[in-house]
């Protein structure tokens, strides 16, 4: 009876450091069979790092992981899966052009006489799907199914591995209310068979609805583990965000003046997108955009820059409607966009710092032949003014740290002397010190009279440096909050914003 | 102490990787000249350069497409068509079975040159449109235009007044002098085609390194989405790079007609392989965003030097194919090493 006494999973004293940041320090988590255990914390609190240590994606520096009492250390996610620990990612990794059953059995397709046994695969898949009351055809092409069905299939896949532990990462971020209810009924079926669920989410109501226990993390540390029944929203928020905010942000010195940019009834064209967004931004203002995952903040920013197509609405700069239908036009109109995915849409990885600095500003280096000296001067300016730490300007950008890469890309846009800077998650994936420098830079730009629009998932960051914050909820405007009135040393400021963010979810 | 040693070894390895192709090829050339000491005669070197020139010009064109992470399978056939059109327009007016019997006097050379360029540009722009607007992979669209160009060229050659599909030959003297002549420097004869090649390479070097188009090309090839977000007009950039490639193919067709003196339906067959090989040996990466004009020039010369030296020491032609194949495989295997990010 000893083994049944041991918890299903016990992670204790997990440490993990990255250059310049201690991502986890003495983190812990205990999951019991047949329960749902939620993991909560702000972005950067260490939830995903902890999970990556469990799955062997990162090597933990210290600590132990016990599965049913036995110490384990998985080499990679496949190893974890073979041992009954499965993860359903927020971004589903599926082969879109192939069907459901092939996706479930990929890598271990059943064979008969050396050929794939499609009949057995069909029967097995059907049995699992029926058992979980999922109404999905095993032969349907994955790419034609809804996100919710695709997620269900990942859960079915975990079941097909006889998973004892299933980790769900933000499973409801793109689901409708009805789909969430269905997901929860499937989760309950799994727990009734003794499966343990680790549930990662930002949505407090859902967490209180589905969880047995809740663990809250902050700054890479374990803060508390409580019974879900004894928690309230307010208590969770207090545990999540309680910290000194004074040191993290530079003093606010910018003074917003007259209105520079007006956005009127803007709608994106292709789903998923946002509807009917209107706001204005003043010269010298830092304007934040907040919202949950799936609130379409990024889509809004990309559409303002013409990277995504707009359906209707106007973008007005200094009283004149501007045509931002393509990024090159938007750039000429004085806009610039720092994208969310630095690797995918920001860096030219094979190129050096000079190339990465000047590429958006080629127009100013001559009509036909480019002025090499001016390009070098501008690159020096980027390195000096924004304090990029690099051996020299011929260094390949991919050998810099994330924070320094980010600074080069911000510098790239500053060279174009934009009037409106659109920054999408400007501090994502960079360490605390570099974050402070980027905050200072943003405030300095505002001080110089530029309008800065900044999307962030980190609420303290928005509260720390913005003058006003637009809150998006499920593709719609939920409201605009103001410094001094709704936030900025105002009690309950985060609750105000979170309540707005959940308005249309 | 120990650390310094490791560091140095790493540097040696990096150096060898960086210049491995040149080192290996240099070794081949040295070996050949040891076997046959007269190999390094000035005449031979000029010969290698001369033979490298037309294919080198083709390589200058397609290098841009490879930097865009594309390729061009239509080069050989398109250039063949250009060469045929050139040939038809430069035939000697005293030649009885000429393509245009109504032609009573030599056309100014600019006419065949522009016609040759126009043909190649049309095909290149179709390729460019397929890649930039229709979002087709360059491999597929150029596979299509390769066949189209070949068919069109055969029809063109076949419709000569003599009614036969015989090769177009017997060109006028001006054409031969300008396109395949030599420049006398004292007693040294420098083939004009070498000068054209180097001149075009110089122009392309400027385009790649000193113009907005060049920077935009590297940006689109290195990260198309980042280029778009940076305000680069991606479609226009791709179209312009293809346009330039077309111009170069047209010039190459014009010069090739003069070099081989007789243009048939199979002129240009397989030239794309040589042009692409030259780029790859010269370090233009198939993953896009990386490459230099110097590299392409050296790649073209080295490739020809190998062909020449293998012939020179009398290697069986079948072995020559095998050796050339191995060199391409080796070049890419080493090239990829340079860009692998260690994880």
Question: What does this 3D model show about the protein?
Answer:
The complex is a heterodimer of chains A (505) and B (343). With 505 residues, chain A is α/β, with parallel strands linked by helices. Chain A folds into 3 domains: 240 residues, Rossmann fold; 177 residues, P-loop containing nucleotide triphosphate hydrolases (Rossmann fold, 3-Layer(aba) Sandwich), CATH 3.40.50; 67 residues, no CATH class. Helices cover 33% and strands 24% of the residues of chain A. Chain A is built from 18 helices and 22 strands. In chain A, the strands form 5 sheets. Chain A has a 6-stranded mixed sheet. A 6-stranded mixed sheet of chain A has the order 18-19-20-15-21-22, sandwiched between helices. In chain A, strands 2-1-4-5 form a 4-stranded antiparallel sheet, with helices on one face. In chain A, strand 16 and strand 17 form a beta hairpin. The radius of gyration of chain A is 25 Å and the shape is globular. Chain A starts with a helix and ends with a helix. By secondary structure, chain B is mainly alpha-helical. Chain B has a single domain, classed as ABC transporter involved in vitamin B12 uptake, BtuC (Orthogonal Bundle). The longest helix of chain B is centred in the N-terminal third of the chain and has 34 residues. Chain B is globular. Chains A and B meet through helix 11 of A and helix 8 and helix 9 of B.
User: Oligomeric state of the chains?
Assistant: heterodimer
Q: Low-confidence spans of chain A: pLDDT under 50, at least 5 residues? A: none
Tally of separate domains of chain B: 1
The count of strands of chain B amounts to: 4
Largest sheet of chain B, order of strands side by side? Answer: 1-4
The CATH architecture of the largest domain in chain A would be: 3-Layer(aba) Sandwich
Q: Taking Cα atoms only, what radius of gyration of chain B do you get, to the nearest Å?
A: 21 Å
Q: Biggest interface and which pair forms it?
A: A-B, 32 and 24 residues
What about the largest sheet of chain B? 2 strands, antiparallel
Q: Uncertain regions of chain B: pLDDT < 50 for 5+ in a row?
A: none
């Amino acid at each position: 009876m000893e083994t049944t006494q041991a918890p299903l999973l016990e992670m204790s004293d997990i440490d993990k450091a990255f250059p310049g940041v201690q991502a986890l320090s003495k983190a812990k988590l205990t999951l019991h069979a047949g329960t749902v255990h939620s993991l909560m914390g702000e972005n950067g609190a260490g939830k995903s790092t902890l999970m990556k240590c469990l799955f062997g994606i990162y090597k933990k520096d210290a600590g132990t992981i016990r599965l049913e009492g036995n110490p384990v250390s998985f080499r990679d996610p496949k190893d974890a899966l073979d041992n009954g620990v499965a993860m359903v990612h927020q971004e589903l990794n599926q082969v879109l052009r192939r069907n459901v059953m092939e996706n479930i059995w990929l890598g271990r397709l059943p064979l008969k006489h050396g050929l794939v046994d499609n009949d057995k695969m069909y029967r097995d898949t059907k049995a699992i799907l029926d058992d979980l009351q999922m109404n999905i055809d095993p032969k349907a092409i994955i790419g034609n199914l809804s996100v919710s069905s695709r997620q269900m299939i990942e859960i079915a896949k975990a079941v097909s591995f006889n998973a004892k532990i299933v980790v769900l990462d933000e499973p409801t971020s793109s689901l409708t209310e009805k789909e969430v209810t269905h997901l929860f009924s499937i989760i309950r079926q799994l727990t009734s068979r003794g499966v343990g669920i680790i549930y990662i989410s930002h949505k407090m109501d859902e967490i209180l609805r589905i969880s047995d226990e809740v663990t809250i993390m902050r700054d890479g540390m374990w803060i508390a583990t409580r019974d879900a029944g004894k928690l309230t929203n307010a208590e969770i928020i207090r545990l999540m965000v309680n910290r000194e905010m004074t040191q993290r942000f530079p003093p606010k010195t910018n003074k917003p003046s007259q209105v520079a940019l007006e956005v009127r009834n803007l709608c994106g064209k292709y789903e998923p997108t946002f509807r009917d967004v209107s706001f204005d931004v003043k010269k010298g203002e830092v304007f934040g955009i907040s919202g949950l995952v799936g609130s379409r903040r990024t889509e809004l920013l990309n559409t303002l820059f013409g990277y995504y197509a707009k359906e209707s609405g106007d973008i007005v700069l200094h009283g004149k409607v501007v045509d931002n239908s393509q990024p090159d036009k938007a750039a000429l109109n004085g806009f610039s966009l720092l994208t969310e995915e630095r690797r995918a849409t920001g860096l030219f990885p094979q190129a050096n710092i000079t190339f990465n600095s000047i590429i958006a500003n080629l127009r100013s280096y001559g009509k036909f032949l480019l002025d090499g000296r001016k390009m070098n001067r501008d690159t020096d300016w980027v390195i000096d003014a924004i304090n990029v730490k690099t051996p020299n300007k011929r260094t390949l950008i991919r050998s810099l740290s994330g924070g320094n890469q980010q600074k080069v890309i911000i510098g790239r846009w500053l060279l174009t002397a934009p009037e409106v800077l659109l920054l999408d998650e400007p501090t994502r994936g960079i360490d605390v010190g570099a974050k402070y420098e980027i905050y200072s830079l943003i405030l300095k730009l505002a001080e110089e009279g530029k309008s800065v629009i900044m999307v962030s998932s980190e609420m303290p960051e928005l509260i720390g440096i913005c003058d006003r914050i637009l809150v998006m909820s499920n593709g719609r405007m939920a409201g605009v909050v103001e410094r001094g009135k709704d936030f900025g040393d105002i009690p309950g400021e985060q609750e105000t914003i979170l309540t707005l963010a959940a308005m249309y979810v | 102490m120990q650390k310094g040693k490791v560091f140095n070894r790493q540097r040696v390895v990096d150096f060898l990787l960086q210049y491995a192709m040149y080192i290996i090829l240099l070794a081949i050339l040295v070996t050949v000249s040891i076997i046959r000491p007269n190999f390094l005669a000035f005449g031979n070197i000029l010969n290698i350069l001369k033979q490298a020139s037309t294919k080198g010009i083709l390589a200058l064109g397609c290098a841009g497409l490879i930097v865009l992470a594309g390729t061009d399978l239509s080069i050989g056939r398109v250039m063949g068509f250009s060469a045929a059109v050139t040939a038809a327009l430069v035939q000697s007016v005293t030649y009885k079975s000429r393509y245009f019997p109504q032609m009573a006097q030599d056309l100014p050379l600019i006419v065949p040159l522009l016609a040759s360029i126009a043909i190649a540009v049309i095909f290149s722009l179709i390729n460019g449109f397929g890649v930039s607007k229709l979002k087709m992979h360059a491999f597929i669209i150029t596979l299509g235009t390769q066949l189209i160009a070949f068919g069109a060229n055969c029809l063109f050659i076949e419709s000569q007044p003599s009614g036969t599909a015989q090769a177009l030959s017997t060109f006028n003297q001006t054409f031969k002098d300008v396109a395949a002549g030599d420049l006398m420097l004292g007693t040294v004869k420098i083939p004009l085609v070498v000068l054209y090649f180097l001149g075009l390479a110089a122009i392309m070097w400027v385009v790649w390194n000193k113009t907005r188009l060049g920077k935009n090309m590297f940006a689109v090839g290195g990260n198309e989405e980042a280029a778009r977000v940076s305000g680069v007009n991606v479609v226009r950039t791709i179209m312009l790079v293809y346009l330039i490639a077309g111009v170069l193919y047209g010039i190459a067709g014009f010069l090739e007609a003069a070099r081989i003196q007789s243009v048939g339906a199979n002129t240009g067959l397989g030239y794309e392989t040589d042009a692409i090989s030259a780029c790859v040996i010269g370090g233009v990466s198939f993953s896009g965003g990386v490459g230099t004009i110097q590299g392409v020039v050296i790649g073209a010369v080295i490739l020809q030097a190998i062909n020449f030296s293998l012939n020179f020491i009398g290697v069986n032609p079948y072995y020559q194919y095998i050796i050339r194949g191995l060199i391409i495989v080796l070049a890419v295997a080493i090239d990829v090493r340079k860009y692998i990010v260690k994880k």
